[in-house]
Description:
Blueprint: H1 3-44, H2 48-58, H3 61-70, H4 75-92, E1 105-107, E2 120-124, H5 132-157, E3 168-173, H6 184-194, E4 202-208, H7 215-224, H8 227-230, E5 233-234, H9 238-245, H10 267-270, E6 297-300, E7 314-317, E8 320-323, H11 328-368, H12 371-377, H13 379-393
Helix pairs in contact: 1-2, 1-3, 1-4, 3-4, 12-13
InterPro entries: CRAL-TRIO_dom (IPR001251), CRAL-TRIO_dom_sf (IPR036865), PITP/CRAL-TRIO (IPR052432)
Domain CRAL-TRIO: 113-262
Protein name: CRAL-TRIO domain-containing protein
Amino acid sequence: MTTRDLLRANHEKILEQYRSNLEGLLTLQTTLIYDILPSVVDELGLGPDASEWAKQWLEDTSSLFRISRRNNFTRSFAMEAVRKTLIWRFSNLWPVGPSQSMPIMHCLPGWVRDPFGRPILVIKAVSTNGDSGTLKARVIQTFERLRILMKHFVAEETSGPQLPTLQYIILVDLKEFSYKNFNIDLITWIIREVIPRFPGLLAGVFVLNYTWMHGGIWNIVKRILPASALSRVFFPSQEELIRYFTRLALPKDYGGSLPFLTQLDDPLRIHEPPLIIPHKQTSFSPSPSQPPAFSSITSLSPTSLLNPYFGYPISSTHGSPFLHHGRRRKRDLLRTLAVLLWARWRKFVIFGLLIALGTLTFRRGVRKDPLFLRSLMFPQRLIHSWGSRINILS
């Protein structure tokens, strides 16, 4: 199978998966926004700015599709994966600070695509010297910018009948790369920690200017990559590269007819994520002339037959029930289970307690007074005996 045939087959497969799973994906998206997100925000003690920022990510249908696809479109697995990714994003991307550009990466203009309509990225592999923490932060920000740019491309395409663009094609230029620049720890971290947070974003990788000197590096990298990723890494010759992309989709740096890479516009620099500075939530009291917002809210018992979330106390605003989120949800469920258990078994529990109490009383009576057992059989004699003792003492 040629490179074009393989990439065409993968392209058609992912579009068919998107088409067939879109309805379930939109349902999942609603659950994530109105149920999972408030729970995570409450659990982490975050404010409305963080909630709105995370909601924008959850509204990115293509990102949710890629996560669901990684989890074989199993709803429970996808939901848990999104929740973990959401927490990871709060830890690594929030608050949104000044964007740190990576000069080694360049995105060709939006109108330049591969034969199947995918945007093209060019990465010039160079030295990775520098602080490890700074490099990792830049890598994460770069992947986030790629996600945002892809979302922008999808937004531009929604006006037409065609399915959205879901993946990039990457050209990796090894011309200035050498073994002494190789950072295996960083590469391993990217493959195992970052890419799973942005799954399915890359459709294929074309490695350019590959020589025998890079063979040792590739032998190390291919041991880290999964088999599915290995099948999408190509080492084309100049002729094969032009045959796949055509000269109209390549800069002059790689034998194409477009201007040199440094002379082309870069959408990554145009669509940078906005800077967000979280602010403290200020409290306010409603004016006397304006009724409180919660005046129309009614609560339902956890065990009410009208409660769609049986076991959890909910509130209903204008007929739309919603859960109270946070750690107390587990406590609410345990409380409801205890109430149901008591309602079902209370007669047996009370009966058992009475028997246990009677048995304990009987044993203590026998142990303290030898006449106790006989008194049960001969109560008149016991009364006479106790009366005689009282007369002697008096």
